[in-house]
Structure formats: structure tokens, C-alpha cells
Amino acid sequence: MKKIFSRIKETLRGVLTGILIGIITFSVNISMAQMATNPIIYADVPDLSVIRVGDSYYMSSTTMHMNPGVPIMKSKDLVNWDLISYCYTSFENTDSYNLNNGKNDYGHGSWASSLRYHKGNFYVATFANTGRTYIYKTANIETGPWTVSVLPASYHDCSLFFDDDDRAYLIYGNGDMRIVELNSDATAIRPGGLNRVLISDPASIAGTGGLRAEGAQVQKVNGYYYVSMICWPSGSMRTQLVYRSTSIAGAYEGRVALRDQGVAQGAFIDTPTGKWYAYLFRDFGSVGRIPYLVPMTWSNGWPVLSPVPTTLDIPRGRGGLGNIVVSDEFSSTGPLQLAWQWNHNPKNNYWSLSQRPGFMRLTNERTDPNVLMTTNTLTQRTFGPKSTAYTSIDVSGMKDGDYAGLVALQKQYGYVGVRMAGNTKSIVMVTGDDVSGTPNQRASIPLNQNTVYLRIDMDFTNRTDKAYFYYSLNGTNWTAIGTTLQMSYTIPHFMGYRFGLFSYATQSSGGYADFDFFRVGTSINNLIYSGPSVSFSSPLSGQTFITGDNITLTASASSPSGVVTSVQFYNGNTLLGTDNTAPYSYDWTNVAPGTYELRAIATDNEGNTGEAKITIRV
């Protein structure tokens, strides 16, 4: 009997131990699943400069030839970021930045900005191939306005630094690190100020050859001046360096701070609770250069960076890309959401959210040889490991020789779109290589209707870097078209691939394409939420009524992440009425003859909107 009880006891002990281990393992897995992971942003956000003001973090980055330019982001936890502003709406008014006369500025524009906060003002320093350096300033980083001071020299990868005595400097260079002193409000070079080599050949401590030191970032911590920078020695990888001195003027001593997976270039940042991190980025193929967060400690006055972790000690929070990438129903008459940027300077007279309410209209101002040389291509970042975007286009305004569609934008591009030849429409898939190359039509399908749906899937998993192209005649059933695009990150563009909406002419100007929406996500079945779902219950699109009829408009609406608070009914841009209670309706009386484009706009409790459109005749 004792043996039986002993066996039962041992069995129960084993079962309980197994349950306990299972609970602990489950708890650890849940805990790990709720922590942030690298990369922090799996999208092109390079040359980042990060500061903390109180309990808020701010970051500037590089988008080069895209406009508006120098994006500013905000975070409360170093993990979840939102776009809040840009330093400018368009760049220099030159042929190259306007894509005029066969000229372009791919890979140029503003580079490697430096964000600072000093005495109640935010400053951003950046430089360009114009031979100038620009210092932007604002008291309100979210709303602006920004003023700009222009220095008559291009200070490569410059880092703006305000010392405790209010003296201001730029530390810059590619190879040797140099210093030049500014006046106290950083609007001009200080006559007779410090201006010399600060650190000679700093990359030599990491190896020889390859990319010399650049990407300077300067900070002062506990009496030491730290100059962080990168290099890429021959046979090695992008490497993070740090130099220190007790005087801004030197002398400096240096160390290799990190050599791991090519994660490098950025700044050190502390939290309100005293933790430290290095915010750096990594070249990652066609998706672009993506931010990583690396824990950091201090030892004898030196920053000590951990190996690049997969999982961090910061809660994941909401996760996702915030408003860095968004779906857009184009239900607002403006301004554009911050995720959108134009390829080169926009031509504002040739795009509109109001000419046809609920659509983005792109009008062809001129003729162009290919999609890379046309104006007003509207872009957003792609993201990894996989991303999908699709759109619906009304092509009834296109003219002979026009092309319009959705492009995977880089030097080696591919698009799915519509081509107009005479009065004949075709769905085409086209690839191309560079601004001077002739587009290569890979497939053509006859199109016998005015609305078509276009889609691109991108796969960046383990640098697969492939794009796939599709079309649909009803938005539900999709057909692959053309060839797979092997994407490639190229230096001429110096940017990760973008999704782009475009329209261009090859024969004559004046044609246009109307884009109904842009929807993006990790797959066609997992799209980023853009607002409530809304649809007309009655009348039916295309329905005809008699002059003087009373027409009841009814709509249904729902929101997966909130509560629908209202549905507004519009005739074009004219508000007819609002209903705050389901079922949503409006009685439109004594309707005059005409063709009407009716809109139902649903709003949820967070202010997100969704839109449905129909056309009727009276």
C-alpha cells in the first residue's frame, strides 16, 4: 500500500511540475511576445537623428528627393513613432528638382539631418548637392512654421551642436572630421570662429580602405564631448565609432563601439528613467535602410553597446507603423496625410482632391518619356517583411498616349497600369531601368470598362526583394500580370522602394486619372485600417429617377476598431445632411435634373473616416 501511495505521490509531483513549467513557459512566451523587437521600423527611415525633450522623443530622417522633406516623427517610448511634420513642402526651384528639361535629382535633395532642441526652439540642420547647408528652426515642432537659414557651403553629414556656453557648431566630414563655428542662433558662420580639422582619419581605428568616416553625431554627457560616426572598412561591415574629449576642440580618443550586422550610424539617447540606447540603422536591401535600437551602458566614461538584440526590454505597445504608412480613401479635400510624399517637387496645379470629391485626380501637365521623369507621382514607403498596396482608377479622363497606374518606384521599376492608345484601353505591366531607358511592356490585356483595380505585392523576407503585379475588374478576383520584378536598392536613387500613384502623357497634355483610394497592408487580406466601412443601401449606382422625385439615401456603416458616430451624405462637395443613428438615411426632395455623384462619409469615435460613392441620373 505504501508503494502505491508513493507512486501516486511521485506521479502527482511530476504532473504538478509539468503544469508549473508549462505555466512559466507560457508566461515567458507571452511576456516576450509583448516586448518590442528589432528592427524598430521595418521601412526606409535612414540617417536618423533622435532627441528627447521631457518625456517625448523626436526624430528626423532622410527622404532626399521626396517632398515634403525632412520628416519629423514623435514617440513616447522609442518604439512607436508617428509622423508629425516636415521642415519644408518643396525644395530648390531648379530644373532638376522640378524634373524639367530632362533633368532630375534622384538620390540628392536633403541628406543626413541633425535635430536639436535649444532654449525653446527646435533646429534641424541638413545639407544638399546644391552646395548649401540649411538650418531650419521652429518653436512648435508639430505645427511650425519653420524658418530657414542658408549657409553658402555644403557641410557633409553635419551635426549641429549647442554647447553649455551657447556657442554653436557644425561637426561634419567624409574622411577627416571637421568643425566650424556658427553664431549663437545658428543662422550663419561666425567670423573668426573655430574652423579646422577636429579628428584626422577617424576610420583608421577600425581598418583600412572602404568607406571613410561620416555620419557624425555630437553629444555632451557628464563633461565629455562624444562624436559618433560610421565607417565601412574593406572586407568588413558598416561599423560604429565613437570619439571623446573633455574639450569641444579636442584632442579626441576613439574606439570601435559596434560591429554587428552592419547596424550603425545614429545617436545615443537616454530615457527619463536613466536607461540608454543607441538608435542606429541597417542597410537591408530593397526595402531600404531600417532603424534598430541597441541597449547601451556606460563604463569609465565610454558608451558600451550590447550586441544587436532581436528582442528589447521595452514593451511593444500598439505596434505597427503608426501613420508612417497609411491607407487613404481620399475622402478629405486636403491637406494630404503626412505619409504621402511627391517624387521631386510637386506641381500643385496638376493634382486635386476637390475636382472630383472622394478621388485623387492626377492631371498630365506635359509629355514625358517614362514614369521616372514625370511629375506628381504620389508615393509612400513600402515595408517588410511583406507589404501589399492596391488602388482603383477611373480612366475615363485619359487621352491617347497616356499611362496611369501603380508603380514599384526605384531606378529599376515596375508598374501595373492602364495604357490609352487612340480610344483603346489596355491593362499593361511595364518594367524599366533608369530615367533614360525605354520602358519595356511585359504584358497587355484589353480593357473594356472605365474602372480597374491594380495591386502590387512586395516580399522583402530575407532580402528576397521581389514584386508581383495584379489587376482586377471587380476588386475581388485578382489576376497576375507580367513578370516578377527583382527589386534592387540602387545608389542613384539611394532610397528603399516606394509604392507610387502616377499618371503621365506621351502624346499630349491634359489627360487625367482619378484614383478612388489607396489601401495598404501586409497582405490583401490584412490591410491597414483607414476608417469605417460604409456602403449605400439605396439607391443603386447608375439608377435613374424622374425630375422632381424625392430620393431617400440610405447607408450602412461599421467600424472594426471603434464606434461609428455619424454618416454624412454629400452631393459632390455639398453636404446634404447628417444622420447620427443607424440605419443612416437622408431624404433628398424635389431633385432637379442632372447627373449626381453622391458620397456617404462615415466617421468613427477616433475621427477616422470611410467613404462610399455612387452615381445617379435624374
Briefly summarize what is shown.
With 618 residues, the protein is mainly β.
Describe this structure in words.
- By secondary structure, the protein is mainly beta.
- It has one helix and 46 strands.
- The strands form ten sheets. Strands 25, 26, 28, 33, 34, 35, 36, 38 and 39 form a nine-stranded antiparallel beta sheet that branches. It has an eight-stranded antiparallel beta sheet with strand order 4-24-27-37-29-30-31-32, with no helix packed on it. A four-stranded antiparallel beta sheet has the order 2-3-5-6, with no helix packed on it.
- Strand 5 and strand 6 (81-88) form a beta hairpin.
- The chain is globular.
- The model is unreliable at 1-5 and 19-32 (pLDDT under 50).
Count of individual beta strands: 46
**Count, helices:** 1
Q: What are the segments in which pLDDT stays under 50 over at least 5 consecutive residues? A: 1-5, 19-32
Distance between the termini: 94 Å
As a percent range, the share of strand residues is over 45%
What characterizes the major β-sheet? Answer: 9 strands, antiparallel
Q: Helix fraction?
A: under 10%
Q: Which term fits the overall shape?
A: globular
Radius of gyration: 28 Å
* Average of per-residue pLDDT values: 93
The class by helix and strand makeup works out as mainly beta
Write the layout of secondary structure elements.
Layout: H1 2-33, E1 35-37, E2 49-53, E3 56-60, E4 66-67, E5 69-75, E6 81-88, E7 111-118, E8 121-127, E9 133-138, E10 147-151, E11 159-162, E12 168-172, E13 177-182, E14 195-199, E15 211-221, E16 224-232, E17 239-245, E18 253-258, E19 264-270, E20 276-283, E21 289-299, E22 302-305, E23 311-315, E24 341-343, E25 351-352, E26 360-363, E27 378-381, E28 386-394, E29 402-409, E30 412-421, E31 424-433, E32 440-447, E33 451-459, E34 466-472, E35 479-480, E36 485-486, E37 498-505, E38 512-523, E39 526-527, E40 533-538, E41 551-558, E42 564-571, E43 574-579, E44 584-588, E45 595-604, E46 609-617
Antiparallel strand pairs: 1-23, 2-3, 3-5, 4-24, 5-6, 7-8, 8-9, 9-10, 11-12, 12-13, 13-14, 15-16, 16-17, 17-18, 19-20, 20-21, 21-22, 24-27, 25-26, 26-38, 27-37, 28-33, 28-38, 29-30, 29-37, 30-31, 31-32, 33-34, 34-35, 34-36, 38-39, 40-41, 41-44, 42-43, 42-45, 45-46
